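Q: What structure does this chain adopt?
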Amino acid sequence: MGKLLAVSAILLSVAVLQGCGSAQGVNPEDVVVGNTIPDFSLKSLEGKTVDKDSLKGEVVVLNFWASWCTPCMAEIPELKELAANSKAKVVGIALDENGLETVKPFVEAHQINYTVAVGTQELFQQFNGVGIPYTLVLDPSQRIVKIYRGPTDRKSLEADLRTIKEQSVNNYGPESAK
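A:
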C-alpha cells in the first residue's frame, strides 16, 4: 500500500508540474542560457509596467513563485537580501490562482522589498517553466545567464552577478561595469 501511495504522489506531482501546453507563437524551448527572454508585460503591485523593455539595461533576477510554495518561501528572505544589497533588479512573478487577492496581502505581511507582479500559467509556460521556484538571471541585454529550476540562494545569485560584471568588464571595458 505504501508503494502505491508513493507512486500516486509522484504521478500527481508530475501532472501538477506539467501544465497545459504552450502559448501560440512562443517556443518555450528557446528559453535557454544565451538567449533573450520572451516578450511579456505585467503590472507590478505598485501599478508600474514590468516588461522586457523596462528591464533592459539592468541585471535582473526574475523569480517565479507562489505563496503556497514552501521552497519559494525559503527563497524570499534571500531575494530580499539580494534586492537590498546588490545593484541587480529583483522581480518576483507570483503565480497564485487568486492573484492580487492573495499576493498583495502576502507581500505586505512578508515586507517584500522588490518588484512583484502577478503572472499566469500561460506566461510561466512561455518562459519554459515547469515547477516553482524558477529563477532566471539576466544580463543588461536581457540575455539569460543562468536558470535555476528549483530553489536557489543569495550566495549563488551573487556569484552569477559577479560573473555578469566580469563579463561586462572583459567585453566592454571598466566603464560598462559601473
